[in-house]
Specification:
Elements (H helix, E strand, L loop, with lengths): L2 E10 L8 E11 L7 E7 L6 E8 L2 E9 L7 E10 L3 E7 L2 E8 L10 E10 L1 H8 L8 E8 L1
Antiparallel strand pairs: 1-6, 1-10, 2-3, 2-9, 3-4, 4-5, 6-7, 7-8
């Protein structure tokens, strides 16, 4: 697969939620036959006061995390992420959060054996729940609203 695609997703995280807690995936891509997820966008914060919206993505040599915004800047308002991806061995990820460029990475974006399939998932996916429960007790309730989820080829 050597394809360019654009995605847009608007989301709202109510401000009455506790910021700390297990990391929460807002959206992610899966690739058939790939050893791991090529790209995901999460809200993460094990501490109770600080967490971040960040992108985590696979590269030819491992994984990278890029902070996109403090959670305090995105909770209680509608946010839009516009993502432009070139799915290729020499591809790129470019993202804007609320119109501001937050990610511009030239990197390998395809890793699987089936170059014809990448799957876009969005929703409220929580990771690290067991670890969080062992360290802090109960897991906080999370709510997220989505609007205008789009893909352009």
């Amino acid at each position: 697969m050597n394809q360019r695609a654009s995605y847009s997703i608007s989301f709202f995280l109510p401000s009455n939620q506790r910021i700390g807690g297990p990391f929460t995936h807002i959206f992610q891509f899966f690739e058939k036959g790939a050893p791991n997820v090529p790209l995901m966008v999460n809200v993460m914060g094990w501490q109770k006061s600080v967490s971040w919206l960040y992108a985590e993505f696979a590269t030819a040599t491992g994984r990278e995390k890029v902070k996109l915004a403090k959670s305090s800047d995105i909770f209680g308002r509608w946010n839009t992420i516009d993502l432009d991806v070139h799915w290729a061995n020499d591809g790129f990820y470019k993202a804007k959060l609320n119109g501001q460029t937050v990610l511009d990475e030239n990197t390998k974006t395809m890793f699987g054996t089936d170059r014809n399939l990448n799957i876009f998932h969005y929703g409220l996916y929580m990771g690290g729940v067991g670890r969080y429960e062992r360290e802090f007790g109960s897991v906080p309730t999370r709510t997220i609203y989505f609007s205008k989820v789009e893909k352009y080829i």
